[in-house]
Each structure stands twice: as structure tokens, then as C-alpha cells.
Amino acid sequence: DGGITQSPKYLFRKEGQNVTLSCEQNLNHDAMYWYRQDPGQGLRLIYYSQIVNDFQKGDIAEGYSVSREKKESFPLTVTSAQKNPTAFYLCASSIENAGTGWYQPQHFGDGTRLSIL
Amino acid sequence: KNQVEQSPQSLIILEGKNCTLQCNYTVSPFSNLRWYKQDTGRGPVSLTIMTFSENTKSNGRYTATLDADTKQSSLHITASQLSDSASYICVVPGGFGNEKLTFGTGTRLTIIP
């Protein structure tokens, strides 16, 4: 079955620690995204990548970093510079409709819940 | 600034009843609008996508409507089931070829037996 796998499901971060959230997709999608979800707020975009070895900052990139070395993988690192990391993190992917510039609706993983120890 | 507002914030209905969720958006230029269902602790799942030329689209017991003139959309759920309990999120992309999405805060729907 094609889909997006996020791991771990739950993650705890100590003060001053960097942690990395994994996102793997086998949908052969070009574009991948990271979102943060907080209670009572809409999803907010952290980073996105439309091709391998290229990525762009979203609306709330400060304190986060990403890499896109493979099409299938888009890991997110929450650095110690992110002072309020407690949230539900969602990874998504999508594919362009054959040269139209339009994208299919994004397909989401089941998230990683990050908490501070 | 692009915005998507949803109402109500939360809704509780009896199993078997119908309900309608609302979405107002101020996103320009407009290309399409999407409704997602998000179960607790899971990622959102796409229910429907509507382009500017579509007024109504159904997906089983879910029917979405779009009025591009008033910038409003609704999601109507018929004969609700316990499994419909979830958050329903309205999402609008930034424009043609722009996959930077604006998300509503969602409507939390609870179906009680």
C-alpha cells in the first residue's frame, strides 16, 4: 500500500537537544511538506521541497531544519533554537498534474507528537 | 492576507442526523478548495476538491458546495455515523501552481449514539 510513514509516533525532547522526525513516502511524489499543528490553530507550513536537494522555508521555519537527499525522504530536525516545540507535526506529499501547475491534494502521514521533558 | 474561517468551531449531533459545516475564505487568486477529515491523532485525509467552476460535488454521504462569488463553501453530511466524529478542515491553496495552503482551524464534529 502506498503512503507516508512518519516516525516515531511520540517523541520527547530534553532542554538543549536537537531531535529529528522521520518522513518517508512510497507514492513517487515530487513535493513534500512539513506542517505544525497546535490546538485551535490551522496547520502551519514549516518547510517544503518540490525536488530533491532543494527546499524552501515556509511560514514558521525558525528553529527547524530539513534535508531532501532522496525523493522518498524528507526528515525534519527540531533544533534547540525552537523554544516552543511541543506540537503535532505532520508530513505531507503531493504530485503535480502533468505540467498543469496544479497539484493533487496533499497526502498526509499520521503525525509525530513532540513534547518537552 | 489569505484567510480561511470555519464555523461552527464544534458541533454535537445525534447519530443519523444531518449537519452542515461552513467555510469562508479570502484567498486570491482562487483555484480550488479542499475539505479534509482528520481523526484524532491521525493525519488529515482528503474528502473532496472543488475547482472554481464546480458548484457541488459529492463523495458518498459528504456533499460539498462552492459559491465562488461569495467565497463560501459548505460540507453537508447526510445520515451521520459514529465514524464521522472528527475534525473537518477547509483548505485553500495560494493560487494556480501555488501549493502554499491556507488551512482553516477546523470544525470538531462529535456524533453521539
Features:
heterodimer, A: 117 residues, mainly beta, 7-stranded mixed beta sheet, 0% helix, B: mainly beta
3D structure, described in words:
Chain A has 117 residues and is an all-beta fold. Chain A is built from no helices and 11 strands. In chain A, strands 2, 4, 5, 6, 9, 10 and 11 form a 7-stranded mixed beta sheet that branches. In chain A, strands 1-3-8-7 form a 4-stranded antiparallel beta sheet, with no helix packed on it. Chain A is globular and about 45 Å long. Chain B is an all-beta fold. Helix content of chain B is 0%, strand content 62%. Chain B has strands at 3-7, 10-14, 19-26, 32-38, 45-51, 56-59, 62-67, 72-77, 86-95, 98-103, 107-112. In chain B, the strands form 2 sheets. In chain B, strands 2, 4, 5, 9, 10 and 11 form a 6-stranded mixed beta sheet that branches. Chain B has a 5-stranded antiparallel beta sheet with strand order 1-3-8-7-6, with no helix packed on it. The radius of gyration of chain B is 13 Å and the shape is globular. The model of chain B has no long low-confidence stretch (mean pLDDT 93). The A-B interface holds A 4, 6, 31, 33, 40-45, 48, 58, 90, 92, 94, 101-103, 105-111, 113 and B 4, 31-32, 34, 36, 41-46, 49, 89, 93, 96-97, 99-106.
